Prior knowledge:
This protein is of the alpha+beta class. It is 54% helix and 10% strand. It is built from 24 helices and 13 strands. It has helices at residues 5-16, 26-32, 48-54, 103-107, 131-136, 146-152, 155-167, 173-182, 191-202, 210-215, 219-222, 225-230, 243-261, 265-275, 280-293, 298-301, 315-329, 334-346, 355-365, 370-382, 389-408, 422-427, 433-449, 456-476, and strands spanning 21-24, 41-44, 58-62, 67-72, 75-81, 83-85, 97-99, 117-120, 124-127, 139-140, 170-171, 303-304, 310-311. A hairpin with a 4-residue loop joins strand 3 (58-62) and strand 4 (67-72). Helix 15 crosses helix 18 (334-346), helix 15 (280-293) packs across helix 20 (370-382) and helix 23 (433-449) crosses helix 24. The chain is elongated, with a radius of gyration of 28 Å.
Amino acid sequence: MQIPEKVRWILDRLKENGFEGYAVGGCVRDSLMGRIPGDWDITTSAKPEEVKKVFQRTIDTGIAHGTVTVMIGGEGFEVTSYRLDGEYEDHRHPKHVAFTPNLEEDLKRRDFTINAMAYNPETGIVDLFGGMKDIEQKCIRCVGNAVERFTEDALRMLRGVRFAGQLGFEIEDETLRAIRACSHTITKVSAERIRVEFTKLLMSKQPEKLLLAEKTGLCQSFFPEFTAMLCTEQDNPHHCYNVGIHSIQTVKHVQRLYGQLKGTHETECCLSPYAGGFSEQKVDSILVFAAMLHDVGKTVCKTTDPDGVDHFYGHDARGCEMADAILRRLRFDNDTIRIVTDVIRFHERRHDGRRRTMRRLISKAGAEVMPYLFLLQEADVCSQSEHEREEKLACIAQARQMYSDICSAKEPVGIRDLAVTGTDIVALGLSTGPEIGRILRLLLEIVIEDPSKNDRKLLLTEAAKHIKIENECSRRE
């Protein structure tokens, strides 16, 4: 195993001072699998106070539970003392912890065998519970008794499903039975922690592992709508899956499409305007939740005509409301909620090829939403039946190009793009805010219909005309 020089230095410093030290957990697992670890955690026989004496710069990030962050330059590494967990009273946190000089005692309290391995250059891999074998067999299995592990910390159940999705592994039968038996305790876990695991699962290589969460009962506490989605068939020429499976397929396709754009010129031209300074991970999460929830409204909007064909009139508007409630339940930030719900609201909008129609859509949806919308619409079509698929994709490609052309030409689509401002309207004799706003919206409609009319003199003349008509109507009244 290759470990970073800074990690090796920490291990060496611990040894020089008479303590054991090992890289532990996910970093060992990922290294053995040829993956690049996201971070490197270290476990040691030294107690927290002893760790602080060994290293010059430390932060007490979790000292009550034995964790001290060692700073090297601007980088931090969590160093945690070997420990035994006391009784778990809330299915989430131990009531107290006790430190131990024994590495095995520390490893046996961990969740899954693949996360219970340790390594240092002198000893090599310490694998006491068959983690390497489970990696070879692509298996998620608890350390020791699965029910005990999940009773201690209910979040481990959802983490197990998430690891299955990220790594492409299967959950071992006993572990799966234990999840089913303990699934009701997931209600003890905070919405924020569930959101993190749910997001990682949807962003994984196999988001379809969400089906495991539904089958074992985990979804009932944080995403019960998924069960209804799986029970909602779509018997019409455009679909070949029920709503739930179609939505999972849409998640997979939106990941693929966005992945193809990353690092390309199109990303720079089309994605930057709507990313709004968001991190790549946040953009990813917005896309996968828009994909997962875009048809959630179909569960309550389904009708069947006399010919036996299913229809879902109004599911976009209803889905927007339902998605808002789901995202708030999961404690998402306002930006994510706003963009996801706006994408869902407009995802059924069909493109008629007219430029003014596209300008009107941009004005209503918002320019920052449009690239998300195109990606979702393309992923949506790719997850449907092959009926008219090529025609649908060609229409989306045409719409995307038209949007790009409108942006490049700086055609007016919002009040800020008008050649006049609210101050100009006030100068014409209006003083109340609502009236000023109404006049500006009337002017915007004019220039959306014909951008050449976005001329200051022309718009002021038009505004004055409307104000005069309204004043005359007021006098008659």
